[in-house]
Design a protein that fits this description.
This protein is of the alpha/beta class and 327 residues long. The chain is built from ten helices and twelve strands.
């Protein structure tokens, strides 16, 4: 996939526009329609997206709660089999363009000849115009505009189409990492660096690595205990993750991301780490004593190990999990 902005040699293409946060199954369904149209017409397949969330440009204090960082998004788009990815800077000037003016940019700057519009997507100043307007403008500009179908999952109880906002709701409000994985087409993950903690886990017999997420805009799922896959130091292991404010320890609003890595007793401080969410086990609880907390952690560990074993993340024999190599 070629990534860029202005290029005089851009081939004629079929394209879709969007922020594509998460590059979930709905996005890939749209991309599949783009690729199909491109193949039928002998054109390149493309998307137009933005490196920074548009609302963050227009609203300096807006926190987008990203499902994917810009780098993660581009990697997932490349995996989707596109030929081109256009990355215009979203500026106040661009935001002020009408839909027709923006379509002029798409045709003149990027050589887009067919535009596939997502089922709920609107663009242009104030998003005031709709699909019928886009078709009319396209006719005037020599650009065909086609509607895309929505993507729905049988596992979604209310039949809603898969969307980034739905995935954010599942993760942030419910900790629903399993259903979120169904929507995404992959398990949600966090990446960052291991930093120092307070050492309470070690005193309880469950030492933890504290993750500092690399991008502060990345969404952290709801508080609770999770079964996770842990990748760091060239190895893949299982782990028991707690996200929350540790109410038993009266830590106030100090929210932390702490993982007890199974079958590991080394020093991980300063190492990059990736946590991949497999299942939420329970919500965060306050216990009457540290002994009660320790007993619960032992129960949690047994349940998490069983969950990860069933998911194929860990082996039944400790220490026999696969190594991995970062690309």
């Amino acid at each position: 996939m070629r990534i860029g902005d202005i290029c005089s040699s851009n081939p004629l293409s079929v394209a879709a526009i969007g922020f594509f946060d998460g590059v979930h199954r709905g996005h890939r369904f749209l991309i599949g329609q783009v690729r199909g149209e491109a193949a039928r017409r002998g054109l390149a397949s493309a998307v137009v997206t933005f490196p920074v969330h548009p609302r963050k440009v227009l609203q300096a204090d807006f926190c987008p709660r990203l499902l994917t960082t810009p780098q993660e998004k581009l990697a997932l788009l490349a995996e989707a089999g596109l030929d081109l990815c256009f990355l215009p800077d979203f500026t106040p000037h661009l935001a002020a363009l009408s839909a027709r003016e923006f379509m002029e940019v798409l045709r003149g700057r990027y050589n887009i000849r067919v535009l596939v519009i997502g089922y709920d997507h609107r663009f242009g100043h104030n998003r005031a115009e709709g699909f019928g307007d886009y078709v009319r403008y396209g006719g005037e500009l020599g650009m065909e505009v086609l509607p895309a179908e929505a993507y729905r999952l049988p596992s979604l109880p209310d039949g809603r189409p898969v969307s980034s906002s739905l995935v954010r709701q599942l993760l942030a409000e419910e900790g629903g990492v399993s259903l979120a994985a169904d929507c995404l087409g992959y398990r949600y993950f966090l990446e960052g660096t291991v930093v120092g903690g307070r050492g309470v886990g070690h005193r309880l017999g469950f030492p933890t690595a504290n993750l500092q997420v690399g991008n502060p805009d990345k969404l952290v799922p709801a508080n609770g205990v999770y079964a996770v896959q842990v990748d760091f130091g060239g190895r893949r292991r299982g782990g028991m993750l707690n996200i929350g404010v540790r109410p038993t320890l009266d830590n106030g609003d100090d929210r932390s991301i702490e993982v007890h890595v199974f079958d590991y007793d080394g020093d991980a401080y300063g190492l990059p780490m990736r946590l991949t969410f497999v299942q939420r086990m329970r919500g965060e609880q306050k216990f009457a004593s540290l002994d009660e907390l320790k007993q619960q952690l032992a129960q949690d560990e047994a349940a998490v190990r069983q969950t990860l074993l069933h998911a194929g993340v860990i082996s039944a024999t400790p220490g026999c999990n696969p190594s991995y190599t970062r690309e």
